[in-house]
Amino acid sequence: MLQFESVSKTYRNGFTALEAISLRIDPGERVAIVGSSGCGKSTLLRLAAGLTFPSSGRVLVYGKPVIRPEPRVGFLFQEPRLMPWLSVDDNVAFGLRGPARQRRDLVRSALLRVGLSNCGDYYPKQLSGGMAQRVAIARALASAPRLILLDEPFSALDAIRRAELQDHFLQLWESDQLSTLIVTHDVEEAIVLADRILVMQPHPGRIIEELLVDLPLDDRRESPAFEGLKKRLIHSLRQADHRSASAIHPSAATLSASALQG
Ligand SMILES: Nc1ncnc2c1ncn2[C@@H]1O[C@H](COP(=O)(O)OP(=O)(O)OP(=O)(O)O)[C@@H](O)[C@H]1O
Ligand SMILES: [Mg+2]
User: Fold this and answer.
1) Which residues of 14-53 are buried (b: 16+ CB within 10 A; e: fewer)?
2) Which ligand 1 atom sits closest to the C-alpha of 36?
3) Residue 166 pLDDT
């Protein structure tokens, strides 16, 4: 469904944000990417979405190189990015094609799925942060994507709204088998939402480890294996940071190794 074949991305200023990224997401799979700030997570999602293009290697969706944003691929940004001058209905309808009546039906069913079917006439300023992000989810879902790309979608929300929207996504997955690639800073979120977690290291951005989350979908936080997985993931992230620090300053590895011993 989504495939990266040895993808590298060097920006115009000569900065290499990603190097030799290979990954594959099969239909219905849910994959999380974690890594420190600046390691290239958003760049990777933007490549998958056709918002930017590889300097070398290939990005394929359904076996075809991505040359522009596709309706089969939905994108959810960190912040809702709603258009303040449009109603909720019109925000969700934005970018949809087809006859007006069909578009209206798509909007209605997308809003129903995020629990906002009575809010179509509201304007963004009348919504709470959590509601606005749900509208953004409805907009991402309205075109009935088969793959959804999420860039830290819940990070601006308080813990309760965040847990609510995570649960919401879990329900959507159960009903739709939507393939998902989610970027997050939050290791718990990665474990709750993904079947597979890719750990990235910066300078340049690379995938250095893959962790399988072999837990039932329901109540993962309560599972006895949850804490163990969390520790492994944090360890792996620390190692990623450590390796990249030693790549920039060769003495850093020795320094922190001796700090650990001391
Ligand atoms: N248009 C651009 N031109 C040049 N460099 C860029 C551009 N966009 C991003 N970068 C650089 O590429 C690197 C990766 O950026 P990216 O936004 O993908 O990181 P990220 O992992 O999403 O970070 P964060 O967790 O802070 O969102 C960063 O060092 C950034 O400065
Ligand atoms: Mg980012």
Assistant:
1) eeebbbebebebeeebbbbbbbbeebbbbbbbbbbbbebe
2) 25
3) 84
pTM of the predicted model over 0.70:
yes
pLDDT of residue 168: 79
30-34 and 179-183 strand pairing: parallel
Of all ligands present, the nearest one to the C-alpha of 202 is: 1
Residue 216, helix vs strand vs coil: coil
Task: Please tell me the distance between residue 46's alpha carbon and the centre of ligand 2 in angstroms.
Answer: 10
In terms of DSSP H, where are the helices of the chain?
41-49, 88-93, 100-113, 129-142, 159-176, 187-193, 226-248, 250-261
CA angle 229, 233, 239 (to 5 degrees): 145
Q: How far is the CA of 85 from the centre of ligand 2 (A)?
A: 27
The pLDDT of residue 249: 57
- On the CB side of 154, CA atoms within 13 Å amount to 20
Contact of 77 with 153, CB cutoff 8 Å: yes
The CATH superfamily label for domain 25-52+65-72+145-261 reads P-loop containing nucleotide triphosphate hydrolases (3.40.50.300)
- Residues with pLDDT less than 50, the chain: 252-262
Ligand 1 binding pocket includes 15 (Cβ within 6 Å) = yes
Q: Ligand 1: which residue has its CA nearest to atom 28?
A: 38
Q: Is the CB of 39 under 6 A from ligand 1?
A: yes
| Structural domain spans, the chain | 25-52+65-72+145-261
> What is the reported pLDDT for 25?
95
